[in-house]
C-alpha cells in the first residue's frame, strides 16, 4: 500500500535533492558552533560538587524521558496508517519499520546530547578525545537502550515492569548524586570522574548491551498488540495535532482525561465545612481541585521532590558562587509557577467550556478567588522549600529567605490562573522579523500569558535573588503579591 | 378578576443572521410557568440557535424577555435558568456521584439528593466512575440529572433525547412533565415527536428562514 502511495508521488527532482542537501548543510553549520562551544566548555578537572549535581540532573532527565516514552508509546503510527495498515494482514514489523527507524534516529541524537552533558558534568582532565568518544557512546547507549526497552515494554508486561524499575533506578541515582553533591559520599563522584580511561571504555561497552536490547526490540516489533499500538497512535496523534495547531493546552486536557478515564474512584460527599468555613457556593466549586489533587499523591510527592532541582541546577552551573546562576533562577521561577498551575484544572475547564460553570451559577469573581487558594498554597510552599534548599546549598546571597515563598504565593496564584484561563493561540497576530529569525507573536504571547503576571508580581523577590534579601524587599513583595492577585480577581470576571 | 400570570419567556420577532445567511426569522414564543414547549423542525432550521438566544448566548434581532428582562450570561440569570446542550467538559478527578454532589453543595437545598438522582437516572452502578468512562447515553443522563437536581424555574434543553434509549426517553418525558407540574417551564428542541407527545408539550414548528 505504501508502495502504491509512493508510486503516485511525483519523482524527486534535482531541485528536491539540492534542497535536502542545502537544508542538511545549514543544520550542520548552525549546530556545529553550538556543539563546539559545548565541548569547549568541558572543564579540565572535575569538581565533585558540580559533578554530583550534574549527574543528578542527567539522571532526572533520563527518568523523565523514559516515563514520557512509556506514556506516549513510543512506537506509534500516523492516524491513516493506524486505520488502514495496522488492522490488515501485512507483517506488523514491516508496518512499524519506519516509526522504529525514526525512533532510533531521534534517540541517537538525544544520546549524543546526553553524552556531551555527561562529559560537561564529569570533566576531562586527560585524554579529552577518548573521553568525549566514550561519553558519547555511553549517552547513545543509554538513549537507544532506554528507547528499545520502552518498545519492548509495549510488547510484554515483563519488560514494562523492568522499564518501571529502570525509571525508579534513575530516580534513585538522581537522589544519590544529589546527596553526594552536598558532601556526603563525595568520593563516589570523584572516583567516577577520575576513573582511568579503561574504565570509561568499559562503560562505553554498555553500547554493546544497548545494541543487544535494540536488536531484541526490533524482533519484538512484530509482537506488539494492535490494541497497544492503536492507543499509542491516538495519544501521539493527539499530541501531534496539538503541536501542529500550536495549541499545547490540548495536551494537558488529553493527559488529564486519559488519567481519569476507566478509573474507579472512591466517591465521597462534599464536606460541610473546611475548618470554620462552610463549603458552599464558590468554595464548593473550588473544592473540586482539592479533591482531584488528593487523588494524585504521586504527583504531589514528585512536586515536593522537585524542590531540590533549582539547588542542583545552581550547583551544576556555579558550584561555589554565593549568587544564583540565571539557569537556576529560570528553573526556580518555572517550578514555582508549575506547582501553582498544578491546581488550576477546574479554572481551565470552565474557561474553555463554561457549561458547568453556568450550571453551578456561583458568582464568578468569588469562584475565582476560591480557586486561587490552592495554587497559592502549592506555589508558596514549593517556593519556600526550593529557596530553603538553595540556601542550604549555599547558592543564595546570605539573609532571611523564608518569608519570600509565602509572600510570592498570591502573585504565583494569579499567574497560574491567568495561564489556565488564557484563550487559544491567536495565529492571526503578525510575525515579527528579528535578528534571530521570524517570531510569531501569537504563540509567543500565548506562552508568556501567565508567566508575565507572575514575574511582575514577584519582581521584588527576583530583585532579592540578585541583591540579597532585605526587609524593604520583603515588604515590597508582600504589597506587590497582594496587589497583583487583587487586581487580577477584580479585572477578570469571565468564567 | 382572573389573576395575571407573568410570562416566563416572551419573545417577539426573533431573528438571527450568521455570515449574512438568515438562520431564524421573526420567531414568536411565549411560555408561562408550567408550560412545556417542544421546538421542532428539520436540521439547520435554527432550533439550537433559538435556545441560545433565550439563554443570552446569541445576539438576536427582535425582543426577548426571560423572567421580565433580557437574558444575559451572568450568575443571576443562571440562578433560575438551566441550559443542557452539548456535552459539557467534566471536571477532572471527580466521579459521577461527585458531580451530582457538587451541584447539591453549590446550590444548597436541591430538588433531590445525589443518591436519588443516581437511581432515577439509572447511574447507580456507575457512580464511582469518572464521567468519561460512561457511555454517550449515560453521560447525557448525567447532564440531565445535574440539571434536574438543582433548583431552577426554566429548563432549556437542546435535543435532550440524544443518545438515550427508548425506555429512558419515556422516563425523561415523565420527569419533564413532573418538573412542569411543579411550576417549572421547559423549552426543548427535539427531533423525537414521541417525546414531545408524551410530555404533552405545545409544539412550535420552525420553518427554514
Describe this structure in words.
The complex is a heterodimer of chains A (about 500) and B (about 210). In chain A, strand 3 (about 430-435) and strand 4 form a beta hairpin. Chain A is built from 24 helices and 4 strands. Chain A has helices at about 1-5, 15-40, 50-70, 80-85, 90-120, 130-155, 155-180, 185-195, 195-205, 205-220, 225-245, 250-260, 280-295, 295-305, 310-315, 325-340, 345-350, 355-360, 365-390, 400-420, 440-450, 450-455, 460-465, 470-490, and strands at about 275, 275-280, 430-435, 435-440. Chain A is globular and about 65 Å long. In chain A, helix 6 runs antiparallel to helix 7, helix 16 (about 325-340) runs antiparallel to helix 19 (about 365-390) and helix 20 packs parallel to helix 24. In chain A, strands 1-2 form a two-stranded antiparallel sheet. Chain A has a two-stranded antiparallel sheet with strand order 3-4. The mean pLDDT of chain A is about 80. Chain A is mainly α and about 500 residues long. Chain A has 2 domains: about 20-245, no CATH class; about 270-490, no CATH class. Chain B has about 210 residues and is α/β, with parallel strands linked by helices. Chain B has 2 domains: about 1-80 and about 150-210, Rossmann fold (3-Layer(aba) Sandwich), CATH 3.40.50.300; about 85-150, no CATH class. Chain B is about 35% helix and about 25% strand. Chain B is built from 7 helices and 8 strands, in the order βββαβαβαααβαβαβ. Chain B has helices at about 45-55, 75-80, 95-105, 115-120, 135-150, 165-180, 195-200, and strands spanning about 10-20, 20-30, 35-40, 60-65, 80-85, 155-160, 185-190, 200-205. In chain B, the strands form 2 sheets. Chain B has a 5-stranded parallel beta sheet with strand order 5-6-7-3-8, with helices on both faces. In chain B, strands 2-1-4 form a 3-stranded antiparallel beta sheet, covered by helices on one side. In chain B, helix 3 crosses helix 4 (about 115-120), helix 3 packs parallel to helix 5 and helix 6 (about 165-180) packs parallel to helix 7 (about 195-200). The interface of A and B includes residues 257, 260 and 364 of A. Chain B: Pfam families: ABC_tran. Chain B: GO terms for molecular function: ATP binding. Chain B: Belongs to the ABC transporter superfamily. Chain B: It comes from Actinomadura yumaensis. Chain B: This is ATP-binding cassette domain-containing protein.
Amino acid at each position: 500500500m505504501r508502495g502504491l502511495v509512493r508510486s503516485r508521488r511525483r519523482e524527486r527532482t534535482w531541485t528536491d535533492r539540492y534542497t535536502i542537501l542545502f537544508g542538511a548543510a545549514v543544520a550542520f553549520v548552525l549546530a556545529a558552533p553550538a556543539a563546539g562551544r559545548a565541548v569547549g566548555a568541558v572543564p579540565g578537572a572535575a569538581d565533585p560538587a558540580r559533578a554530583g549535581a550534574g549527574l543528578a540532573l542527567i539522571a532526572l532527565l533520563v527518568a523523565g524521558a523514559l516515563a514520557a516514552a512509556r506514556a506516549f508509546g513510543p512506537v506509534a503510527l500516523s492516524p491513516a496508517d493506524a486505520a488502514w495498515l495496522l488492522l490488515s494482514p501485512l507483517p506488523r514489523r514491516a508496518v512499524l519499520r519506519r516509526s522504529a527507524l525514526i525512533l532510533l534516529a531521534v534517540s541517537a541524537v538525544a544520546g549524543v546530547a546526553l553524552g556531551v552533558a555527561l562529559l560537561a558534568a564529569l570533566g576531562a582532565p586527560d585524554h579529552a578525545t577518548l573521553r568525549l568518544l566514550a561519553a558519547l557512546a555511553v549517552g547513545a547507549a543509554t538513549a537507544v537502550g532506554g528507547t528499545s526497552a520502552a518498545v519492548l515494554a509495549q510488547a510484554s508486561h515483563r519488560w514494562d515492569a523492568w522499564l518501571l524499575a529502570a525509571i525508579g533506578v534513575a530516580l534513585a541515582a538522581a537522589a544519590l548524586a544529589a546527596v553526594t553533591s552536598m558532601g556526603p559520599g563525595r568520593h563516589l563522584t570523584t572516583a567516577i570522574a577520575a576513573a582511568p580511561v579503561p574504565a570509561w571504555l568499559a562503560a562505553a561497552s554498555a553500547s554493546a548491551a544497548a545494541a543487544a536490547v535494540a536488536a531484541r526490540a526490533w524482533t519484538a516489533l512484530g509482537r506488539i498488540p494492535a490494541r497497544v499500538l492503536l492507543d499509542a497512535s491516538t495519544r501521539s496523534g493527539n499530541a501531534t495535532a496539538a503541536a501542529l495547531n500550536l495549541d499545547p493546552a490540548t495536551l494537558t486536557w488529553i493527559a488529564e482525561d486519559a488519567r481519569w478515564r476507566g478509573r474507579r474512584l472512591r466517591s465521597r460527599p462534599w464536606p460541610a465545612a473546611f475548618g470554620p468555613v462552610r463549603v458552599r457556593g464558590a468554595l464548593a466549586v473550588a473544592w473540586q481541585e482539592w479533591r482531584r489533587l488528593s487523588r494524585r499523591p504521586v504527583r504531589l510527592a514528585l512536586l515536593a521532590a522537585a524542590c531540590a532541582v533549582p539547588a542542583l541546577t545552581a550547583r551544576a552551573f556555579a558550584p561555589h558562587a554565593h549568587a544564583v546562576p540565571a539557569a537556576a533562577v529560570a528553573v526556580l521561577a518555572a517550578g514555582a509557577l508549575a506547582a501553582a498551575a498544578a491546581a488550576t484544572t477546574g479554572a481551565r475547564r470552565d474557561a474553555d467550556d463554561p457549561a458547568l460553570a453556568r450550571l453551578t451559577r456561583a458568582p464568578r469573581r468569588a469562584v475565582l478567588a476560591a480557586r486561587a487558594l490552592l495554587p497559592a498554597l502549592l506555589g508558596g510552599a514549593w517556593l519556600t522549600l526550593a529557596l530553603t534548599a538553595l540556601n542550604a546549598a549555599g547558592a543564595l546571597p546570605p539573609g532571611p529567605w523564608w518569608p519570600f515563598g509565602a509572600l510570592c504565593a498570591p502573585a504565583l496564584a494569579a499567574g497560574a490562573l491567568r495561564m489556565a484561563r488564557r484563550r487559544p493561540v491567536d495565529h492571526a497576530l503578525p510575525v515579527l522579523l528579528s535578528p534571530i529569525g521570524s517570531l510569531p507573536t501569537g504563540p509567543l504571547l500565548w506562552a508568556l500569558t501567565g508567566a508575565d503576571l507572575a514575574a511582575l508580581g514577584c519582581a521584588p523577590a527576583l530583585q532579592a535573588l540578585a541583591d540579597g534579601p532585605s526587609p524593604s524587599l520583603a515588604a515590597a513583595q508582600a504589597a506587590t503579591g497582594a496587589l497583583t492577585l487583587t487586581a487580577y480577581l477584580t479585572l477578570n470576571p469571565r468564567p | 378578576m382572573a389573576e395575571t400570570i407573568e410570562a416566563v419567556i416572551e419573545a417577539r420577532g426573533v431573528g438571527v443572521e450568521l455570515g449574512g445567511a438568515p438562520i431564524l426569522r421573526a420567531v414568536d414564543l411565549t411560555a408561562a410557568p408550567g408550560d412545556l414547549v417542544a421546538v421542532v423542525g428539520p436540521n439547520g432550521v435554527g432550533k439550537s440557535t433559538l435556545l441560545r438566544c433565550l439563554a443570552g448566548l446569541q445576539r438576536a434581532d427582535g425582543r426577548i424577555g426571560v423572567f421580565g428582562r433580557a437574558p444575559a450570561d451572568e450568575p443571576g440569570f443562571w440562578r433560575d435558568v438551566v441550559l443542557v446542550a452539548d456535552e459539557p467538559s467534566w471536571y477532572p478527578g471527580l466521579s459521577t456521584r461527585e458531580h451530582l454532589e457538587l451541584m447539591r453543595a453549590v446550590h444548597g437545598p436541591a430538588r433531590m439528593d445525589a443518591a436519588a438522582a443516581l437511581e432515577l437516572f439509572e447511574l447507580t452502578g456507575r457512580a464511582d466512575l469518572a464521567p468519561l468512562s460512561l457511555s454517550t447515553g449515560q453521560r447525557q443522563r448525567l447532564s440531565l440529572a445535574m440539571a434536574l437536581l438543582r433548583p431552577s424555574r426554566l429548563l432549556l434543553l437542546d435535543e435532550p433525547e440524544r443518545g438515550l434509549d427508548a425506555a429512558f426517553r419515556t422516563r425523561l418525558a415523565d420527569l419533564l412533565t413532573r418538573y412542569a407540574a411543579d411550576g417549572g417551564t421547559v423549552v426543548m428542541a427535539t427531533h423525537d415527536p414521541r417525546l414531545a407527545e408524551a410530555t404533552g408539550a405545545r409544539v412550535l414548528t420552525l420553518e427554514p428562514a
